[in-house]
Design goal:
With about 140 residues, this protein is of the alpha+beta class. The chain is about 55% helix and about 15% strand. It binds FE2/S2 (inorganic) cluster (FES).
Length: about 140
């Protein structure tokens, strides 16, 4: 148990030194929206230019309100923290409102990420938008 606490605090220190904000660090350590959803309304996958992979599961109700979202990620701390923050920004929103979420909103929520990691935020947002657009297209057909 104590070993786990030490690992968490050393990861915390390394991320803080690298320029991650406290909120970003918490999102990365907790990973509370990591995984899949049963009976999702849509599943979508995106590969970043860096090769990192994100898969998003979105569940909506009958009024197109997003009830829940999960991400499966093979990627860096920036990708994980950005995806987790994105979920907090879109839960309870409509699909159209979710399309208005942009990199700036996620960046603010994270309270900072290193400059070299800004594309990780873009990957989380692009994956969200791709999933929402696929879901909207499926509903219209
Ligand atoms: Fe690829 Fe962060 S390095 S998403």
């Amino acid at each position: 148990m104590e070993k786990n606490i030490n690992i968490a605090s050393s990861e915390q220190n390394i991320l803080a030194e690298a320029g991650y904000g406290q909120a970003a660090i918490q999102y990365f350590l907790e990973k509370k929206y990591m995984g899949s959803l049963e009976n999702p309304s849509c599943v979508s996958k995106k590969v970043g230019s860096c090769g990192d992979i994100m898969k998003i599961y979105i569940k909506t109700d009958d009024s197109d309100v997003i009830e829940d979202v999960r991400y499966e990620i093979s990627g860096c701390a920036g990708a994980i923290s950005a995806a987790m923050a994105t979920v907090d920004l879109v839960r309870g929103k409509t699909l159209d409102q979710a399309l208005n979420i942009d990199d700036g909103h996620v960046f603010q929520r994270l309270e900072g990420v290193p400059e070299k990691k800004h594309h990780c935020i873009q990957l989380a947002v692009k994956t969200l938008h791709q999933g929402v657009n696929e879901l909207k297209a499926a509903k219209q057909s």
